[in-house]
Amino acid sequence: MKKTNETVVSGVRPTGNIHLGNYFGAIRNFVKMQEEQNCFFFIADYHSLTTHPNPKDLHGNVRRSLVEFLACGIDPEKATLYLQSDLPETAELYLFLNMYAYLGELQKVVTFKEKARKQPNNVNAGLLTYPTLMAADILIHRASKVPVGKDQEQHLEMTRTYARRFNNLYNTDFFPEPTAYNFGDQLIKIPGLDGSGKMGKSEGGNNAIFLNDEPKALRKKIMRAKTDAGPQEKNSPMSVEIANLFSLMEVLSKPEIVRQYKDAYNDCTIRYGDMKKQLAEDAVAFTAPFRERIEELSADRKYIAKVVNMGKEKARESARETIRRVREIIGFKAFTG
Ligand code: TRP
Known about the structure:
Helix 1 links the parallel strand 1 and strand 2. The chain contains 13 helices and five strands. It is mainly α. Helix 3 runs parallel beside helix 13 and helix 7 packs across helix 8. Strands 1-2-3 form a three-stranded parallel beta sheet. A two-stranded parallel sheet has the order 4-5. Helix content is about 55%, strand content about 5%. The protein folds into two domains: about 210 residues, Rossmann fold, CATH 3.40.50; about 90 residues, Orthogonal Bundle (Tyrosyl-Transfer RNA Synthetase). It binds tryptophan. The site of tryptophan has 13 residues, from strand 1 and helix 7.
């Protein structure tokens, strides 16, 4: 397929394994986008330093994220897949952008305030300037589209502000003002298993279905998912817990299966145990190919090293050109004899 000349950038922090929420909310869309656009996807390992991980954990997490990205179908021949820390150009652009980032603005960022509350003993400058680093990630490739969730919208707004400030200050149109990539109706919400809302890893391992879950453990956590006392009257509205199970069924099971259980709910003959058994089998079948691929890739150190090097080369080519131009615009010029 012919690619458009639009550049897309997105990063994922190397925290934990990929769950169905990540997959349906983001990664599956990355896989589609790599066919049509010039895509840069990276593991945001610089960003993960705000919480001071130990070196061994850091490396393991980065490796696992990379393997899982690949297992999901990100194709290093189609997209540029790289590690953030392999681009020193990003760090340099971050330094420049910090000159246009004001303290008052940074302190008002919702994610900063939340993190500062969660880790009061470690409110470091990296945490404060998280949005500037994210802006550097995006602007280093002069991207115009950024596929991210709602929680990143404020960071993206700041990216646009820095791009605009730079452009105005130097009277240039060098940086585009990137916008969030909206998937429209393709965006599905994936609820967790504990009946509380969104699937997430911070809610604990039993709330999320991970792509590498072992079948036995996966069946067990689905069988433990919260339900209610059952419908008392025909066609009664669903409790959140039951609606969540149906939402999961909609993405994992065949439409006729979903219909069968909905009908059973509506005429009060439903047995939640049976429904969960069905959901568990469909979840196991859905995740199995991912889990196998993750295992295969994990063992293939050579291939992973090749992917990392290839991504680094491709990403640096684009980043070097941006930095060359930025230095020139700012006024760092070569002294010639
Ligand atoms: N902040 C993003 C998150 O927490 C991760 C990220 C870092 C990112 N840099 C980025 C996303 C650049 C898109 C573009 O999910």
